[in-house]
Amino acid sequence: MAERTDIHGLHVAGALYAFVRDEALPGTGIEEDAFWAGAAALIEDFSPRVRELLDVRDRIQEQIDEFHRSTGAGGVDQDAYEAFLRSIGYLVDEPEDFSISTDRVDPEIATISGPQLVVPLLNARFAANAANARWGSLYDAFYGTDVINEAEGRERTAGYNPVRGQAVVARARQVLDESVPLARGSHAQVTAYRIEAGTLVAETADGATGLADPEQLAGFRGDGAAPEAILLTHHGLHLEIQIDRGHPIGSGDPAGVKDVVLEAALTTIMDLEDSVAAVDAEDKVSGYRNWLQLMQGTLTAEVSKGGRTYSRSLNADRVYTAPDGTDLTLPGRSLLLIRQVGHLMTSDAVLDAAGNPVPEEILDALFTGLGSVHDLRGPRAGGNSRAGSVYIVKPKMHGPQEVAVACALLAGAESVLGLEPLTLKIGIMDEERRTSANLKACIWEARERVVFINTGFLDRTGDEIHTSMLAGPMVRKADMRSTSWIKAYEESNVDIGLECGFRGRAQIGKGMWAAPDNLADMLEQKIAHPLAGANCAWVPSPTAATLHAIHYHQVDVDARQAELGAGRRSTLRQLLTLPLGNPAEWDDEARRNELDNNIQSTLGYVVRWVSAGVGCSKVPDIEGTPLMEDRATCRISSQHVSNWLLHGIITRAQVEDALRRMAAVVDEQNASDLTYVPMAPSFDSEAFLAARDLVLDGASQPSGYTEPILHRHRAAQKQADVLVRSAS
Ligand SMILES: CC(=O)SCCNC(=O)CCNC(=O)[C@H](O)C(C)(C)COP(=O)(O)OP(=O)(O)OC[C@H]1O[C@@H](n2cnc3c(N)ncnc32)[C@H](O)[C@@H]1OP(=O)(O)O
Ligand SMILES: O=CC(=O)O
Ligand SMILES: [Mg+2]
């Protein structure tokens, strides 16, 4: 067993103890002994409270299972079902109307609408990139993706393709014309931009013109007569026209424009949850260290590409001259939130006095909280939150009681860290069915510190399947999108958020675009999120953030929220309508396709999780479309297989056969990775066994979560890797 330090009754893994002593505590003004005394008290107080929440989950699930067993598969009497859910405390009474009172919230969360990037925190290279994704090149986003199609000579070639480049420039000018139009003509006709007497002058062949709304000029860089950059603003977001007549692109542009840069990932969630594989103290410390360094502004990462290696560091603020001649400074980095783990898992990074692993969420609250102290006081304060808050995203909570305990834990962490009460804010992931069905009561519990609600529709779909596992076979995975519950869920999340006073105070967020390479489709479809009244929505990459930013220029979310805030569009009855399918509609081929697809995504994800510790991957689906897979998508796929197996839509032999066939497919997909260990033909690797457990034992997993099985097999794999290394 790894070396541990005993302190205040806790047994702390050596790596964590040293990290706290040598890196996290210095500069915070917190005494080491006082910190561990506080940590021990918090753990003692909250461990049984968390355990109790998990017992309630188990009890409720058993009661729901029994209800479906007794009523039989094939649909429920909705009146009886809802009365039953109320009788077991699954549904609680809604509180009277109220408004949240959260204060000290940065404008990126309270008032400005824009993309929200998510990134696995254990990957420092991606994390630094994400923090810097506040500003993104529109030219790069158009040029490098399928948004500009590859027809008519516009292919993405090895070198620069000027025909594609022209299409990019034309498309970027359209964005300018839509967001910051000129009084006359188009940005495409401009031959020179300059600043005169605090206003923008745009020269065209037809003479000079200016902005249709001169107030949209926010600043410039360089000499006003020949500026390097012009800063414009629209819907609270900035756009920068960059000019350089000596640049390869600018030299061919009539106005010398070399790029259009958009304010893109306004906020970023540094994820310690579903996109990471963190199973021991070593993994947890690397996440805590990255967060600490983000809060200190010192995170760097080595980047090697194109034969070049360099160090990526965090961007500085951007400095401009305002139209009135004063200095204007804008944040260079995204406002960072931290997603901690939910109530379920424990971690042996710290053992309590009885030698038991402690709830992992308590460690996350303490050790990311400690990192955040560097952003709240001392020489580096305000590098992230200028309002003096810490933004915690809390996933996978089931109902108001769980939200209340999460908030109490944050209050306890504030006291250990010597923070002003209500510094640690909470974002409530609305991603479990009991939370959706009681959302107003959940918000009530967090009313003083809530900064967002977000429809995590992926976990939510997994919970939809698991909660009603015994009710009957679920519709096919792709058909979930058109079911009654999901429409009601998305609508009521926005409506309840507005009803509770989120407008102008907090985020109402929408879920992930999970096809990271299909960005033309994203540009067409994800406008639905701001149109639905969401002031942020998740994107998987900085490039996707830049493209999604366009939607917030096209839609005035604040005005949209004002229109929508007139009541609820859907009912609890719709939300609680089970997505049961009709087996008569599924012939053998449909069943096999559904099974193969789910097994392939499960294996494709799990193999990298267990063998390589990669918590989020791009995995091709059965049609070859690369999809973002994380623990939530894995929860859906594995639960779907378990559900169909339970109801005899597929047999165990078919599942075993699919596992073997798809393992060979996944091996083939990873063939170019020299470190990859194939699953076929032995089918006995930890990764293969984990995937098999997930689908065969899915019905009995707590809430259908994948963590217990993934952690077990990853820990075994890590141990095996150590043995191999020490033997060689
Ligand atoms: C249901 C939920 O919980 S959703 C939330 C969890 N999901 C996520 O957080 C998704 C985050 N996204 C990712 O992890 C990745 O984009 C993946 C796994 C989907 C794809 O990764 P890859 O296949 O490596 O991407 P790809 O090769 O296209 O791009 C890699 C480049 O993009 C950058 N990049 C990709 N995603 C991100 C990101 N989320 N943040 C910052 N940079 C990113 C990388 O830094 C890299 O650039 P670099 O070489 O300059 O460092
Ligand atoms: O966390 C997000 C989800 O969709 O699940
Ligand atoms: Mg989730």
Automatic annotation (TrEMBL):
Q: What is its main location?
A: cytoplasm
Q: Could you name the Gene Ontology cellular component terms for this entry?
A: cytosol
List keywords of the entry alphabetically: Acyltransferase, Cytoplasm, Glyoxylate bypass, Magnesium, Metal-binding, Oxidation, Transferase, Tricarboxylic acid cycle
Q: Which residues bind Mg(2+)?
A: E431, D459
Q: Which InterPro entries match?
A: Malate_synth_C_sf, Malate_synth_sf, Malate_synthase_TIM, Malate_synthG, MS_C, MS_N, MS_N_TIM-barrel_dom, MSG_insertion
Q: Matching PANTHER family, A to Z? A: MALATE SYNTHASE G (PTHR42739)
Q: What is this protein called?
A: Malate synthase G
Task: Please name the source species.
Answer: Sinomonas puerhi
Q: What is the lineage of its organism?
A: Bacteria, Bacillati, Actinomycetota, Actinomycetes, Micrococcales
